[in-house]
């Protein structure tokens, strides 16, 4: 899943499209999305909403809304001026495509043409709707049914009104359309698991928050990640993401320790205060090579956490090439270059884009990474190996205690109709760690197919490291490695090769400090 804002996606001067910031402009980017490996897009609100918000008195101020309007132009009044609602969340004209997102006078026709083009490319389109607390349930049902029937929308993501998910989950509409909400009751999930009729999914910040804290090296999150990465219950799909429109971009997540929302006009009081970010040693942009390489590695690790977990991964637009909002974690009121994607890809941006493209392709190639049922960590097929097992410094003994920041996860391909084994080594520690490899059949060898510490993280098959039938190996600091256990077609007695030199970063005593290489 690829989450984007229609105007911000192509409004930049280097977006390469003629009709910038429009449905027609987004349509021109379909080949790029297709090449990336995306098969569904989730659009931020595209219904016609008011873009200008009335001024609001500061929190705790005795001023009424009328007084706020009267004093809006007085800079000494403390009243925020009129601001633009760029994101579009809030009330609106729910039954009409947004006119200002159209390059022509017929927004409805242009929007339909865009949907047809996405479908022709094999990409589904999901829309995000924000309904206020008092919205009538009948109106909501009519609205979603209208977009599904009139525009052939494939699904909806709903925010705003609470306790809406269970009411909508059993509508006949969602036998053929997808419904994404932040939470469903246990009764709804259990009933849906038995009936297997409705396409519902849960999307909230649980995966993101646990993974972000482990990514930067916080203790006591390894066990939480081991649970998040295998979550995929039959009654409700899971949407996994590391970033969302609300919060830091992926580049800002590894570049800032604190939010920088000064331009929002709320003196930094808005936006989340808990982004669980780490700047890798220096706040904001840095010209130091060591910091730049560590930030690249951390972004690759974040993408690996998302794309190598069960469930449905969601990538925020621009994260795959290094989009930044200068540390602003709440840019809802900015319709400017701050929120428009910068398509002028740097060398580092191209490296990350290629990594994400290869990782998405790798996920698609291996069904073991996207199974249809919850992983049980048991050998329920009597194949000799469990579907998923955890390993530490000793094979079969995965120590997920709060002091540890590394683990090995082995998947048996037998449970997904594949041959061989997949071993993912996760090391979020700032020092090198040893991980044990379980014993596999004598005719099999371990091959290293991905290493996030390397510039070329997916080396060609002729350059993949052959570890033979080794029983242990070392993982460099803050690195994710994928090993494949497969039959050795060379001479049957593969020898362990030396590991290529990785990007060098100095060891540190704690995750918040780093010395330049």
Q: How would you describe this structure to a colleague?
A:
- The protein is of the alpha/beta class and 517 residues long.
- Helices cover 24% and strands 18% of the residues.
- It has helices spanning 6-10, 23-27, 30-36, 65-70, 107-120, 137-151, 165-169, 186-195, 206-215, 222-228, 250-253, 289-307, 347-365, and strands spanning 2-4, 40-43, 47-48, 52-53, 83-84, 93-97, 124-131, 155-160, 178-181, 199-202, 237-240, 312-313, 315-316, 388-391, 406-412, 421-427, 433-436, 444-451, 465-468, 472-475, 479-487.
- A 9-stranded parallel beta sheet has the order 12-11-10-9-8-7-2-1-13. The protein has a 6-stranded antiparallel beta sheet with strand order 14-15-16-21-18-19, covered by helices on one side. Strands 3-6 form a two-stranded antiparallel sheet.
- Strand 15 and strand 16 form a beta hairpin.
- It starts with a strand and ends in a 30-residue tail after the last strand.
Largest sheet: 9 strands, parallel
What is the number of strand segments?
21
SSE-based structural type: alpha/beta
Q: State the strand order across the main sheet.
A: 12-11-10-9-8-7-2-1-13
Shape: globular
Task: Report strand %.
Answer: 15-25%
The residue ranges in which pLDDT falls below 50 over 5 or more consecutive positions are 492-499, 504-517
Provide the residue-averaged pLDDT. Answer: 90
Rg estimate, integer Å: 24 Å
Oligomer designation = single chain
